[in-house]
Amino acid sequence: MFDQDLIQKWLDEGTINPAQAEKMRADIEEYKTEHRSKKQIIAFSTIGAILIGIGAILFVASNWEKIGDTVRILLLAGSTLSIHYTGYHLKYENQKYPRLGSALLFLSALFFGASLFLIAQIYNINANNSTLVLIWFFGVFPLIYSYRSTAVAGLCSLLFYLWIYLLYSERNSFSELINIRDLYLISGIALYFTGTLHELSAKAKHAAPIFKFMGLQVVLVALFICTFGSWEPKSKEIISAIYAFLGILFLTVLLSKPLRSKLAGFQTDASMAAISFLMAGITLITTNTQVSEEAYMGFFNLVFLGLLVLLLYAGYSTEDIGIINTAMFWFIPLIIARYFDFFWDLLPRSFFFIIGGLVLLIISIVLERKRRELKAQFAGVGQ
């Protein structure tokens, strides 16, 4: 999108005439208005589809005992298939309501999971079952590529993390091998790398942002928890090897010039590689030597802060406001946590909350002002 200042520059240089400049400005404004309208339609369609789905599921659940088992299964399967076909028809056959069709296709993915758990209940199968979540995951995963659905990509990401949690809870042997935070950190890096691989394919590129976003958020959550210092290292060298392997995978892509040229966020990808190797090192050290909680806490505070700074740099370099928003968001809980750590016992409670509130207000104003400036700059709006 052309910057307003750039249009003015062309006008001053005589590259374009006033009529052309006015037409370009009008086209830009029309594009922005249409883009906002499309976003609203997508949001309303998705929310409406979800509400319909919730209502239908609640209706079936409220009359559950009055319906026979065979009728229940046919009703659930029929509803899922009907919603799916309606969405497919509106998006690909009728083609007049593609956004509503996409919302209904996403709703069918939700219905598939709800039907799966309700049918499991009919046969007295435990609903807190990782296998059911895995079936749901594989059942809707093809929709990401067949219908180019980013919403289903987000759903599959959530199902992936839910499956990990349930599997970890079911298998006691996992807790002896790996800490839950290490498991989520590894899975977050792996999901982010999956998004990086999707960027290399034109047919799968649409799913890359959501996979990278979801992976990055889990990495940040896991690292933030580590900044508190309460961690139980596991005496298994295999965990360090897994971290190193993920780092090597990143380097394989990042050091290949033909592959690297296809990546939209090289700096963020490089930060994930650095995190992988850092975790490989700290895991190996804690496996073989005793590390104090203070040293561990200090190390991860530096790592977390360094990652946020790298994300800010990456977002600014690539003009990605989403990365900048993520980094700015995570600065707030980091500051709050460290403020409580250092000043809770030093200040009277009234001064503690007054000073803390003032600091947070100032920081939030500064961050929001800077975020708006960068968003306007990236959008091509003259300041």
In short:
Helix content is 81%, strand content 0%.
Characterize the biggest β-sheet. Answer: none
Count of extended strands: 0
Radius of gyration, rounded? 25 Å
Contiguous low-pLDDT stretches (5 residues minimum) are: none
Distance between the termini: 15 Å
How are the SSEs ordered, and which strands pair?
Elements: H1 4-13, H2 18-62, H3 69-93, H4 98-122, H5 130-140, H6 143-146, H7 150-170, H8 172-177, H9 180-199, H10 208-226, H11 237-254, H12 257-260, H13 266-288, H14 293-318, H15 321-343, H16 349-379
Structural features:
globular
Task: Kindly describe this structure.
The protein contains 16 helices and no strands. The protein has helices at 4-13, 18-62, 69-93, 98-122, 130-140, 143-146, 150-170, 172-177, 180-199, 208-226, 237-254, 257-260, 266-288, 293-318, 321-343, 349-379. By secondary structure, it is an all-alpha fold.
